[in-house]
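Hi W., the magnesium ion complex you wanted:
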Amino acid sequence: MPSRSTRLNTCVSDVLETTPETIHVVAGVLNDGQGRVLLAQRPPGKSLEGLWEFPGGKAEPGESAAQALARELHEELGIHAELGEVLTRFPWRYGDKQLDLETLRVTHWDGEPRSCEGQALQWVDARTFDREQLTPADRPIMALLAESVD
Ligand SMILES: Nc1nc2c([nH]c(=O)n2[C@@H]2O[C@H](COP(=O)(O)OP(=O)(O)OP(=O)(O)O)[C@@H](O)[C@H]2O)c(=O)[nH]1
Ligand SMILES: [Mg+2]
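Structure:
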């Protein structure tokens, strides 16, 4: 009987041709209902320092995307989030790092998101935000959001 993580890897690799080293990253799209989405800035000393991204992070072994994202949003923003549909999912490579990057819509949350880890936060208009300020993988995602502002 293969372990849970082996089975998950096998399952993901059917779709994304991942390797065991692939990093599953989950990120949340919080929308304020007026076309603005929440971004967090990557802190100094980290890869892609200073660029903006959707709040989230790496899934831990055995976590589903929704579990990992709910945990990350609580750690980073202090909110309890209700998660909706998967908006995007695609492979992305940064140097020798291979990501499986998944974004989910965040449908409801309690309270006001706040910076729990010292990262800068801002609400931006998906249609007008300068995409060069985003991590490269997030630029096509923002383009998609700009087309589907609700
Ligand atoms: N949380 C998050 N990470 C993203 C997004 N887009 C994107 O390319 N990433 C990349 O996904 C990777 C994992 O994110 P993370 O926040 O858990 O990683 P980290 O900074 O602790 O790790 P690292 O800088 O050592 O790689 C980073 O390389 C980050 O740049 C996004 O929208 N949200
Ligand atoms: Mg993170």
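The first strand starts at residue 23 and ends at 30.

W.
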